[in-house]
Amino acid sequence: MHLRINDVTVSPTRVDELREVLSNKALPVVIAQKGCQGLLCAADRATGNCAIVSLWDSKASLEASEKTIASIRSATVDAVDAQLNSVVIAEVLREVRLREVEHDGRFAAVSHWADSAALDSSEKNSTALRDQVGKAIAGTSIERVSTAEIILTEVTT
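RESULT FIELD:
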């Protein structure tokens, strides 16, 4: 499985508007593409930083969709006056670990929680686990830890 991660920033007051545009305009276009397995958007309501993630059965399907996705991406960003910061292509290696295709050796760990209270209560253990990983694997560093609310999810099977 491969992912296209669109890193965008929108005014925090327009996060819900972004969800509506994604649900009503982008989602039908994205999931109609061959090999698409879903769309997800996670948002930090305090900063407006959002990750719009499309899931693909293969790198070939992801690449074949780029022209259509670029068009709907542009329309979506314009509709909510968002800023497109970057587009990253990643390969899913396991359910909770991703490897960026363009930057070999860089990984992202992803976890999800039932609610903000569960996330908050996990922080002590998560910090300890990150420290253990850094010590166990020479040359490993944790570059960034971020938290976001999933505001849209549509997964096809």
